[in-house]
Here is the input.
Amino acid sequence: MAIVSIIQIVWTVSAIGLSVLVLLHSPKGDGLGALGGQAQLFTSTKSAETTLNRVTWTLTALFMGLTVVLSAGWLTPPAG
Here is the structure.
């Protein structure tokens, strides 16, 4: 499997994960996080939001970085 294929898979997974995490954020209420009992996994709602924010920002940075690398074509050898 080529490195480009692996990076495309990681890019796709990060995009899907980012979409799910954004939906889990609560806009001042419970949000969709209440459906799965997400806040109960943590000691408090504040730590749940903090963890959710950190994971979301990490996935955002990963997604944006991989988008730049894939769109610039830095991993594909030049033709010719």
The CA atoms of residues 22 and 40 lie 18 Å apart. The radius of gyration is 17 Å. The mean pLDDT is 83.
